Amino acid sequence: AGRREDAAGDAQARAQVTEHEVAGLLALTQEVARYAEPRAAEQWRLRHAAIAAALADDARVGNSPALVELRDVTQALPALFTRLEELPSNGDAFTARRKEALLDQLLTNTQSMSDYAYQWFQDSVEQRRAAESEFRWIALAVPCVMLLMLLASAIVVLRRVLLPMQRLDRAAAAIRRGDMTFRLGNTTHDEFGDLSREFDAMTAALIASDQQRDRSEQQLRDITDNLPALVAYIDRGYAYQFANEKYREWLGIDPFSMVSRRVPEVLGEDIFSVMLGKMDKALAGERVQWERSVWRDGVERHLLVEYIPDVAPGGTVRGFYALSVDITERRGAELEIARSEQRMADLTNAIPAMVGYFDMAETCLYANDAGLRSLGVERARIPGISMREALGETVYAQHEPYVREALQGRRARLDGKVEFAGRAAHFQAHMIPDRSDADAQRGFYLMTFDITALKEAEARRAKLEGQLRAITDNLPVAITYLDDQQRYRFVNRTGLEWLCRPADEVIGQRIGDLLRPVAYERRRENIETGLTGKRVTFEAESITGDVTRILHYVYIPDIESDGRVAGLYGLATDVSALKNVEKQLGLLVRSDVLTGVANRYSFNETFPLALSRARRAMSGLALMYLDIDHFKSINDTLGHAAGDEVLKAFAKRLQQSVRTTDTVARLGGDEFVIVLEGVNDPDEPQIVARKIVANVTSPLTVEGRSLTLTTSIGIAFRRAIVSADAATAEAMIGRADAALYAAKKAGRNTWRVMADDVLIEEKGLA
Ligand SMILES: Nc1nc2c(ncn2[C@@H]2O[C@H](COP(=O)(O)OP(=O)(O)OP(=O)(O)O)[C@@H](O)[C@H]2O)c(=O)[nH]1
């Protein structure tokens, strides 16, 4: 319609132009008719040609009836004009009339052209109006139609698209809610029908997939819940997507409540700030391991945490798996191993030895500080350096046979010597095989002691011991050492001589097995006392063969620094000679020089002892006091020397008159006492007195002269001895003296008894 309207407009414009041109042609025609000028004719022809050319194009000017007429008239006009021009200008009347007629015809025809042009213009105006009207109508109708079409489309869309879309939306919402049972159920055979079926199939697949996922998750849970580890999955937003049951067990956190919650929410900001850097590393695709500790049941537990990135096929990290394994026990064991290794290092470093451990290939796996120092090996080379390399060829050659022993599971000991810093160094190397529990040989320990100092000390000690032994062997003292088991560990030469045995029969033997039982018994108590740590001094008799010795023993306990008695040193000195001298001196001190019987000093010693014995035995006791009658006259007549002889003879007769157990003592001058023990009746001493009196009176020859001696005897008798003190002794002596006085008074050569303060006369023996 638009194009038509444009064409109508265009035609109208052309018609108007043509009308104007035709009007011009009419004016020219009139001018030609009036003036018959060639220039006017020329112009007429030019204008006519232009009009004809303009009308020739149908496409541009159209094909209205007026135009057809106009075109016809226009085409016929040049012939008429030519005929007019062909007529002579100053012809006859016929010609003039013909010319006039032709002019009229030309004018008429030109007028017709003008009319037709006008008509064409009018027609074109009309056509244009009609085209405009059509265009306007169409312009109105098209939106209406389009609106209607839109409306119709909307209805169709509503019916076919929106309602299914709404159902689809509801279905999607249901799925979002987790309701997978919603079905679209659209059976139409169109796109929505296909979509619905696809959708329903998809939800069914989702349900199946969900069930599969639930089964997988359950399986995952079953596995992870039974793992001795915290297992979780954390997404890029630091939110848990999965956590196993151990979170509840170990940390008291419900694993289901953790899902979709962020780490700081679950574990707290503090630990999150620690974890963040590590989580970011895991999210950058790096596998991360770290340790942290948690408190569980009031006990600190160590966890080894590992983040394993979850990398999508495209390479992006979707999240990471977090595994936390309780390594408290392992850590404890590791610590214990580390501690025991440290202890071993401390221990091996503390002992004054080079300690090393070698495997079956003789590769050093461990060496203590002293070992490294002495070999001049850097610690960085352990483990790895071979024994040959560490020791050097010369020293290794010494070790090699022993190493072979150790590698075959036998202990080996090497006492070796090396030149070190220009002097001989002694060492003792112990190779101790290392067996596993399964009894497989794994290697061996090498423990090397620098025994140079020990060797030197040993040499010094041996020298010193030699010197000491030379001294002790030449001492007249038996020197022994008994250990705590009473075994001889050292005996000097004198000791061996007294034992009458060689050293190899003595050393290591128990003293109880070597001595006679009696001799051992005498020493046993002292040895035992010595072994309790007390110094003991005693004397004992020692009989070797036919030699009897009195030995003075000193046992000196050997007390170690911890107070333990390791044994005792015994020093035995032969005091036999001394004892003899002592005995002689004792005899001298206690015996009367002239007569050889006990003297007053001895009597004073022995009498109280006799009293004690009587008291203990609850027996009686008698003390005789004797005096030679008229001894002064013997001295006076025969001289003092003869008097001495008489005293000797008298003493001898007294001793012969009593038992050897009865003590005869000279108190001084011609006064003697005799102590009779075990007498319970006053008659018993009288029997002895009678015998004495009888013996004394036997004839005696002194210096060629025969003498008859008599004696007077005073006897003190006590049936019961109550107290055995000096006063009692004095009292007894006093009573005996009183009884002697009574005997003297009674005429001498007799006796009197003072029995328990009662003086008893001699019983008819005088
Ligand atoms: N030969 C000698 N005479 C001694 C010794 N000690 C003392 N006498 C003497 O012995 C005498 C002792 O005498 P008395 O006992 O007093 O008197 P007695 O003559 O024995 O008279 P009665 O005892 O009364 O019978 C004194 O003359 C002393 O000098 C001695 O060791 N040797």
Give a verbal description of the structure.
The chain is α+β, with helices and mostly antiparallel strands and 766 residues long. The protein folds into 5 domains: 2-143, Four Helix Bundle (Hemerythrin (Met), subunit A); 227-326, PAS domain (Beta-Lactamase); 355-455, 2-Layer Sandwich (Beta-Lactamase), CATH 3.30.450.20; 476-580, Beta-Lactamase, CATH 3.30.450; 591-760, Alpha-Beta Plaits. 55% of the residues lie in helices and 23% in strands. It contains 25 helices and 24 strands. The protein has a 7-stranded mixed β-sheet, with helices on both faces. It has a 5-stranded antiparallel β-sheet with strand order 2-1-5-4-3, with helices on both faces. It starts with a helix and ends in a 6-residue tail after the last strand. Guanosine-5'-triphosphate binds next to strand 17, helix 22 and helix 23. Residues 627-633, 635, 640, 643-644, 647, 669-670, 744 line the site of guanosine-5'-triphosphate.
